[in-house]
Every structure is written in C-alpha cells, then in structure tokens.
Amino acid sequence: MTDATLDHVFDVTEQNFEAEVINASLDTPVLVDFWATWCGPCKTLGPLLEQLAAEYKGAFRLGKVDVDRNQQLAAMFGIRSVPTVVLVKDGQIADGFAGALPLGQLREFLARHVQPLEGGEEEVAASETSAETPEAAINRLQQAIAVEPERAELKLDLAVAMAQAGRSDAAATELDALPANLATDARAVRLRHQLELARVLKDAPAQAELERRVAADPADWEARDLLGVRLLLGDDPAAGLDQFLAILEKARDWNDGAGKKRLLAAFATLDDAELVGRYRRRMASLLF
To answer: Of the CATH numbers 3.40.1440, 2.60.40, 1.10.10, 1.25.40, which one belongs to the domain with range 207-287?
Structure first.
C-alpha cells in the first residue's frame, strides 16, 4: 500500500465507527469493506479497492472492517458473507454489494455515487483507458482458477470476460457449469440474457443495412428487431429500446410477442436504473 493510498484507507473498529464512518460520511462518502483474514476473495478485492481509493484522491475514504475482530459491527450491518462492501453517505447506507467484483464493475459502482475530486479526474480516466483487456482478464482468471479451482466466483468472472472478448459459446459453457448458488447471481442472470441477445445477431445484417431496411419499410419488424438488438448491445441502448417499443405498439403479436420479450430481456441486461424505469413505464402505458 502506497503512502497516497494510506491517506484514504483506515481500519474501522467498534470504537471509531461512529466518528470515522457515520459522522465522517456527512462530508465524505465512506466505502466500508467487511473482510476476514481467511477469506480468499477478500485478498482479491481489497487491493482493488485500495487502488481506487488512491485514484479518487480522497473523494471517498475506504474503511476496512475485520469481521472476526469486530463481530458487533458485522452483526449490526447484517453481514452474512465476506467480502461485503457498503457505501455510507450522508450518515446513511447508500448502496453495497457482496462478493469480489472485477475492477470494471467496481468503477461502475463508484461512478454512480462518487465524483473524483479536482485533480483526480485525469488519474481515474487514465486508469480506465488502460484497464485490463478481456483477453488479459481471461488469461489471469484461468491461471487463478488453476491455483484455486474451488473458488467458483472466479469462474463467473471468467464467463464475463469471455463474453466481453466475443467468445459467446465459451462464456455460455462457463455459465452452465456454475454451481447453483452462483447460477442465480445477478451478474450470471444478466450475462445469460446478454448471450441470448447476442445469439440473435448471428448471421444478421450489419447495422447500416438494417437501418436502410427500416427507413424503406417501417413495418419491417424483423429489421427493427435486429436493429434494436444491435443498438442495445452497442453504444445506444435507448435507441434499441425504441425499436422494441415500436414493435410492441404497432405489431404486438408479431413473432409471438417479440417486442415485449425483447424489452424484458433488455431490462435484465442494463445497469442504468433510470433508463430502465423510464422505458418500463412506457412499456406499461402500451400494455395497460
């Protein structure tokens, strides 16, 4: 741990909890990492959180709770497994997650709640642009699984990395091999929907061709459907949802209700709660 990291990372105890977490969060968000010395995933997650604390240069502080030494704190937060991470902001629990998320998802989690301080934006942006490639992640995870094959959560990370690398069949194989407790994990469910949508695009025309077909015939529902999937999985998910809404509005029964089915699948893949909520309301207005 570097000196810069030490400035933003501290140990939480039952004695300093109120002052250093609850009261301090009124000014600066505090990310509380519940961990244990015997926890393998904690050893993966901890350094990533410390890296982010250094990158954000004090925009949040990282509090570390050893659950074995602070059992009352763990009980107060209802901690059932480690690692578990809780974000405390304005004296209240704002968000949290369980398990060792990869660096990219940790960045997404923080971005929803914390903005880098002046001078920290460049470092965060530079770190994001130099983030690990999917292929590098696959190699790292395969090596980690060879050393610790009992860590099933690594296999879920591997499935995600394979999907990001475009290796859909391999990702599906990893998903199918997950134990039951991870098969229903939110990331696994999301990835399964993403893979199902990606399969729709096998042998599908390019986006430009689909756009030409829709412009020529707005009732070309097949083209709208494929265009919606391309946009959803590309860089304009809202435009993709618009295509599915158009099918639902004008051809509700087409292809056994494909418009509604695509919307529901899309909602399961998106992290943007505001976008999902907006389009859920629009879908409901058409259905009811």
So the answer is: 1.25.40
Length in residues, the chain: 288
pLDDT of residue 118: 58
Q: Which residues of the chain have pLDDT under 70?
A: 1-6, 117-132
Active site residue 9: no
Residues of the chain with CATH 1.25.40: 134-200, 207-287
Q: What integer pLDDT is reported at residue 284 of this predicted model?
A: 94
Helices (H), the chain: 3-6, 17, 40-56, 71-76, 103-111, 121-129, 134-147, 152-164, 168-176, 180-183, 186-200, 207-216, 221-233, 237-250, 258-269, 273-287
Exactly one of 9, 32, 39, 223 is catalytic; which is it? 39
- Out of 12, 21, 31, 42, the active site residue is 42
Look up 42 and say whether it is catalytic: yes
CATH topology assigned to domain 3-129:
Glutaredoxin (3.40.30)
Closest CA to 238 of 204, 203, 199, 279: 279
